[in-house]
Design goal:
The complex is a heterotrimer. Chain A has three domains: 129 residues, ATPase, nucleotide binding domain (Nucleotidyltransferase, domain 5); 102 residues, no CATH class; 151 residues, Nucleotidyltransferase, domain 5, CATH 3.30.420.40. Chain A is 55% helix and 12% strand. In chain A, the strands form two sheets. A five-stranded mixed β-sheet of chain A has the order 7-6-5-8-9. In chain A, strands 3-2-1-4 form a four-stranded mixed β-sheet. The longest helix of chain A is centred in the first third of the chain and has 31 residues. Chain A is globular. By secondary structure, chain B is α/β, with parallel strands linked by helices. Chain B has 15 helices and eight strands. In chain B, α1 crosses α9 and α11 runs parallel beside α15. In chain B, the strands form two sheets. Chain B has a four-stranded parallel β-sheet with strand order 2-1-3-4, sandwiched between helices. In chain B, strands 6-5-7-8 form a four-stranded parallel β-sheet. Helices cover 51% and strands 11% of the residues of chain C. Chain C is built from 18 helices and ten strands. In chain C, the strands form three sheets. A four-stranded parallel β-sheet of chain C has the order 2-1-3-4, sandwiched between helices. Chain C has a four-stranded parallel β-sheet with strand order 8-7-9-10, sandwiched between helices. Chain C has a two-stranded antiparallel ribbon with strand order 5-6. The model of chain C has no long low-confidence stretch (mean pLDDT 95). Chains in contact: A-B, A-C, B-C. Chains B and C meet through α6, β4, α7 and α14 of B and α7, β4, α8, α15 and α16 of C.
């Protein structure tokens, strides 16, 4: 089948969306951008294609009798198993790479000891993979580096101690190797991995009739996913090895993406890590005007990151704490350079953390309001996207200020708004071929 | 102690209320008190308020929105490298807080304020808006003639706005009224310089700010009352050093900044806040041709500031040094708004002159909404300490 | 693309030679003894200065030269180390830093100290402080010509009289005193006559951009075309000859149906016609230009090419009214016009040059240009229905040119124009 793919290379994450001929979204994928945009693009695309397979499985299973009510559970199981298979494959790659990297004068005479320790550690990690991907298990990230990394540290520290080996030595091997592995998209035939995952899912006993699911899953796997047209966007787009007509500015993609999510969108605000964009679109999603924060990155998502660091908190904890505020403190600087100083000043004056945070969120949104005003104001409907759209305190201030300045406006916030740019990219890909 | 109407506390509170009021309630009330009254706003650094007064209008000094104003639309019109006063001033305009101002004057101070005059024309086409030019040539027959003609044009503009002639007689009367106001301003400044513990700068500042929004006669009376009240009060003298503050003639620092400097151990004995109040250094003759008199005062007896051209290198910095000497100051604090072209371009020249005269100084920048006072307290505190050590040695 | 591939036409060689000669003259005053006046580009009085056999040294041009040679960054840092604020104009700091490092002209020889600072104050507040700063360094005579701003969007007789009076009572006597040469008004008339001739040809060249496709780029190419007339050559035979050559070259380009010349040869495809407001960035001038011609964007009219005189609005130096015409010239320069006038002008350019939109290159250093540009953009969008775009750079501060940032915005802008155009076409 024809697949239209949009890839959005952001400064922190890379997103991909797969769409069919009718503009229906089939799959989404996300990965960290690393320092290598090529890999990030390849990995996110692969993830979106995997997600597409699951969509196809779901379609195939939807009219199988006797499965009603069980499809979701089964697919969740299948995904866990698939992820585990993939994880183990990358673990194996990492182990091989580590072994290869245990070379040079530094390791002289200790190679065997290191290899033995590595074998021990990786065997343990493979073992743990069942736990890591057990039903209901919480993973703090879906990125291989994060999952493997944290476990490796714990297990290897222990193992080194037992073996009387310097942990630094092993860590050195790991650091070198993880970068290599991370910049290598998981190889191996997808189909085989899906089938392996299917087998282990059914062996586990998924509560479904094995024969009833095997056929539609195999049939769905048999559908060729043709990469009909790929459009790249986002800040890193110029680094993509794409011909020029396959590259669109993130402004255009964002406008179109928001239009596809909410057809009546006329004004879009996106607050990302590095920039804030206000976009006006016409009724068909075509950009009429846009403004971005000027050279100064004051008031972007990154600002919240600095604040979180300064307060020794997690980024996602800022919003909820700010929501507890009863009287917001006025914060005047959204300058990342001065944020810390102003914060300490306020804390020294005895202001409460939640009140300061409430003020900080308001400051960011005030800044965004200015950029919106610069682009021509807010028209109904208004769609808010980007990482900061997930922050409830920011959303609360935005809603207040919109009401004060523009009256009653429909405000759309999609939980998957992080895919807006990629969605627009996929839509451009679809239009390039179908129109 | 309960505050009687003419106690220091009551006067200062009144000034504080006027200062805090971004809706300009007092000026609105003045306008509403009689039909046909007009209000003419003006920005720093100097306009001849006598003309507005003689037209029976209220001159209203606009000094931005201060630290308490949230700026949304004003920011939409300015890049990050432009100072804050035009943003908050536009915000005042766009949010309707200046909708009662029938005119706006934008003096010669810098390109940002100059361009704001054109922006005002585009955004508020019904308002009588004028870039008020002042000569940078100080010869009577050259700059003087030009300026008299500029004054005449302004007078005509105001006449048209008010629908009535501004007579020479009315102008001469207004000059008298402002002469008295300026005398009181000088008195307050002299009193503070002599006994800064009795008239703290945060109070003097608010008192001078009140002159922006009150009818001049009321402001003059307020200054009289203030002087009477503080003279009667016993306030403790602190072991502070004495400084002149320079560079804050346009965008204003937050009031907290002034308080911080004082708390850090520096008495401000002279400053360039609201220069409009004391731009003309002596009484303007109230007889003869009023426009020629105003022009002559401007050319030959007006304050020195970086917003003016100094044709003579030998005179550069003299005004500041003289102020340091006369007011018995021990040092200078250069406090300039971020991105302020006049103040920041001038600063190295003034610093060189101070250095040559052995006058110590420190410098920092602020914005009208600066939130952090700690670095300023530290700098000013260290400065005060070093001055004390230096003079003890 | 290496530099030796750059195509040089006769006019370019002529201009190069003129600039080199002027620097040679400036750096050899010890030999020929001519006096030097430092003065600014907008509202400069070149024809008058020539009447006193004086040479003209323009600090802005030195700053541009240093910007293009990538020297300005070091000079600016030097000035900032000396106590100049990071907030203020980088032309000033590049100039002061250059002085600290020996004041070397592009020919490698030191520039002489000026004998006179002729402060032609037109349209820019910073000029005033700049020359006060220089005066403190050089301790030489300084004379101010205060040109009133067109606050109400018009010039008045009072303004004109004021300028003429300053010329008569201050500027000319000072020039006489410094140079030892008596003022001869007929000599001024001759110079003005030559100016007007060159101005005719310049206007003809700039207006060829009304053609589709245009044979010139009126911004990136335009800054070269205005060189002689904005600087030390207005009123000289050299300038007349330069514009004669230039005009002939453009005529030839039109005859052959050629597009503008870029550093990489002729520009083939013209997809977007733009009007540009604001000065260019000099430190990355070539890279900046490339971002345009690579995308098929050509500039058909610009305001920066009017800072040294608005000849396309009909003004010519007039030998019959010499001092009055100098006054009118100064009053009429682009940055001496108020914002409503600037908006009107941009609107006129968008319409007359059939542009696709307005691009504003907002310069950190230059509040005279920059303060209010966002409102100007909004007004233009409202009046013309054409989209505007806004980018930020600086004149000669390399720290303030973010290529990725600028390119990102430009691409978004071009694609937006493209998309709108398609939508319009499919609707039709």
């Amino acid at each position: 089948m024809k697949c239209f793919i949009g890839i959005d290379l952001g400064s922190t994450t890379t997103k991909a969306v797969v769409m069919d001929e009718t503009c229906a979204v089939l799959g989404r994928g996300i990965t960290n951008s690393r320092s290598n945009y090529d890999t990030a693009a390849a990995v996110s695309k692969q993830e979106a294609l995997i997600d597409t397979r699951f969509t196809l499985f779901r379609r195939g299973l939807s009219d199988v009798s006797g499965l009603s009510g069980k499809v979701d559970g089964f697919l969740a199981d299948l995904e866990r198993h698939f992820r585990r298979v993939q994880f183990v494959e990358q673990l194996n790659d990492l182990e091989e790479t580590c072994v290869r990297n245990t070379a040079g004068p530094r390791f002289h005479g200790r190679e065997t000891a290191i290899h033995e320790t590595l074998a021990h550690v990786f065997a343990k990690l493979r073992q743990e993979s069942f736990e890591i991907f057990a039903p209901g298990a919480k993973r703090r990230s879906d990125f291989f580096r994060d999952i493997a990394g944290s476990r490796f540290m714990t297990v290897a520290t222990e193992a080194c101690k037992e073996a009387g080996l310097s942990f630094d030595l092993v860590l050195n091997v790991y650091d070198k190797s993880i970068i290599e592995v991370e910049n290598r998209p998981p190889g191996g035939a997808m189909e085989a991995k899906f089938l392996a995952a299917l087998d282990s899912t059914l062996t586990d006993g998924a509560g479904v009739d094995a024969e009833a699911v095997r056929k539609p899953v195999s049939a769905a796997l048999g559908i060729p996913l043709e990469e009909t047209y790929v459009v790249g966007t986002g800040y890193g787009r110029v680094r993509l090895p794409f011909p020029k007509e396959h590259i669109r500015s993130e402004i255009l993609c964002h406008g179109l993406g928001a239009h596809i999510m909410y057809n009546d969108t006329r004004t879009v605000l996106d607050i990302g890590g590095q920039d804030t964009k206000a976009i006006q679109v016409d009724p068909s999603g075509i950009v009429e005007n846009f403004q971005m924060n000027d050279r100064c990155a004051a008031g972007c998502g990154r600002y919240l990151g600095y604040i979180a660091d300064e307060m020794n908190m997690g980024l996602h904890e800022l919003g909820p704490l700010a929501m507890k505020s009863t009287r917001s403190v006025r914060i005047n600087s959204t300058c990342t350079v001065f944020a810390g100083a102003e914060l300490r000043d306020r804390l020294a004056l005895g202001e409460k953390r939640e009140d300061i945070l409430a003020g900080l969120h308001r400051a960011i949104i005030l800044r965004a309001m200015s950029i919106i005003s610069r682009s021509g104001g807010i028209r109904d409907q208004f769609t808010f996207t980007g990482g900061v759209a997930k922050n409830e305190a920011a959303v609360r201030e935005l809603k207040k200020l919109i009401k004060e300045n523009y009256g009653d406006v429909t405000i759309n916030i999609d939980p998957d708004s992080i895919y807006t740019g990629a969605l627009g990219g996929a839509a451009f890909a679809q239009r390039a071929v179908m129109n | 102690m309960p505050a009687t109407p003419n106690s220091t506390a009551a006067i200062v509170q009144r000034c504080q209320d006027l200062f805090d009021d971004l809706d300009f309630t007092a000026a609105r009330a003045w306008k509403d008190a009689a039909p046909g009254r007009k209000v003419v706003g003006y920005m720093p650094v100097y306009v001849p308020r006598e003309l507005i007064h003689a037209a029976n209008m209220l001159p209203l000094g606009i000094l931005g929105g201060g630290e308490n104003m949230e700026v949304i639309h004003g920011d939409a019109y300015y890049q990050s490298y432009i100072c804050r006063i035009p943003r908050s001033t536009l915000e005042l305009g766009i949010t309707g807080k200046l909708d009662f101002a029938d005119g706006m004057l934008f003096p010669f101070v810098c390109d940002v304020i100059r361009n704001l005059s054109g922006m005002w024309k585009l955004l508020f086409p019904k308002v009588y808006t004028r870039f008020f030019d002042t000569p940078q040539n100080y010869k009577d027959e050259v700059g003087g003639n030009y300026y008299i003609e500029e004054l005449r044009e302004l007078r005509e503009g105001l006449e048209e706005l008010g629908g009535a002639r501004i007579t020479d007689e009315a102008l001469r009367a207004s000059i008298e009224v402002y002469n008295e106001n300026r005398r009181l301003v000088r008195e307050v400044y002299a009193f503070r310089a002599a006994t800064p513990w009795k008239a703290p700068s945060s109070e003097v500042y608010l008192l001078m700010r009140a002159g922006n929004v009150l009818p001049v006669e009321e402001h003059t009376q307020l200054m009289k009352d203030y002087l009477a009240a503080v003279k009667a009060e016993d306030r403790p003298m602190r072991d502070n050093c004495r400084v002149v503050l320079n560079g804050a003639f346009c965008e204003q620092p937050p009031l907290n900044l002034i308080k911080s400097i004082e708390m850090a151990g520096c008495y401000i004995v002279d400053d360039d806040f609201m220069l409009v109040n004391r731009w003309l250094l002596d009484d303007v003759p109230a007889d003869g041709d009023p426009l020629a008199n105003l022009a002559s005062a401007f050319l030959h007896r007006s304050a020195e500031t970086s917003a003016k051209f100094q044709p003579d290198e030998g005179e550069k910095g003299k005004y500041l040094i003289q102020s340091v000497r006369e007011k018995g100051a021990e040092g200078v604090i250069f406090a300039a708004p971020s991105f302020c072209d006049p103040a920041l371009l001038e600063r190295p020249m003034l610093q060189a002159k101070l250095k040559a005269h052995g006058i110590p100084y420190i410098s920092f920048k602020y914005a009208e909404n600066s939130g952090q006072m700690q670095p300023i307290r530290e700098q000013a505190g260290t400065f005060a300490d070093s001055i004390k050590l230096w003079s003890a040695a | 693309m290496s530099t030796q591939d750059v195509i040089k036409e006769a006019s370019m060689l002529k201009q190069k030679e003129m600039i080199a000669n002027n620097y040679d003259l400036l750096t050899s005053t010890r030999g020929h003894g001519r006096k030097v006046a430092s003065t600014f580009v907008p509202g400069n009085l070149n024809e008058l200065i020539m009447c006193f056999d004086m040479l003209n040294n323009l600090p802005e041009i030195n700053a541009i030269q240093n910007g293009m040679k990538k020297l300005s960054g070091g000079y600016i840092t030097e000035a900032e180390k000396g106590g100049h604020s990071e907030d203020v104009c980088t032309y000033v700091k590049a100039d002061l830093g250059m002085m600290k490092r020996g004041n070397l002209a592009p020919n490698g020889k030191p520039l002489p100290d000026p004998d006179l600072l002729l402060l032609s104050y037109t349209g820019c507040f910073t000029f005033m402080k700049w020359f006060e700063l220089l005066r403190a360094e050089y301790n030489c005579p300084t004379v101010m010509l205060h040109v009133p701003y067109q606050g109400d969007g018009k010039t008045t007789q009072n303004m004109r009289d004021y300028i003429v009076k300053q010329l008569k009572e201050d500027v000319i006597p000072t020039l006489e005193k410094v140079s030892g040469v008596k003022f001869d008004i007929d000599r001024l008339r001759e110079n003005l006559r030559r100016s007007a001739k060159a101005e005719d040809d310049l206007v003809w060249v700039l207006e060829t951009a009304k053609n589709k496709p245009t044979p010139i780029d009126a911004y990136f190419g335009g800054v070269y075309y205005i060189g002689p007339i904005f600087t030390a050559f207005r009123g000289t035979d050299d300038a007349v000859e330069y514009y004669r050559l230039l005009r002939a070259e453009i005529e030839e380009r039109m005859r052959q149906g050629l597009g503008p010349l870029t550093p990489e040869g002729e520009m083939k495809e013209q997809k977007y016609r733009l009007v540009v407001e604001g000065p260019p960035n000099w430190t990355s001038f070539r890279d900046f230009w490339k971002m345009f011609y690579d995308e098929g964007a050509v500039v058909v009219a610009s305001t920066y090419t009017k800072v040294g005189g608005m000849y396309d609005l009909g003004f010519r130096h007039d030998p019959d009214h010499p001092l009055e015409s100098l006054a009118d010239y100064c009053l009429g320069c682009y940055t001496n016009r108020n914002l409503p006038q600037r908006v009107d002008l941009l609107e006129k350019y968008i319409n007359e040059y059939e542009a696709d939109g307005l691009l504003i290159n907002s310069i950190k250093s230059c509040n005279s240009f920059s303060a209010g540009q966002l409102l100007m953009m909004r007004e233009i969008e409202k009046r013309t229905g054409k989209p505007g775009a806004f980018i930020e750079t600086d004149l000669v501060d390399p720290r303030y040119f973010s290529a990725a940032n600028v390119k990102n915005r430009l691409e978004s802008y071009f694609q937006m124009i493209d998309q709108k155009r398609r939508a319009l076409a499919s609707a039709a």
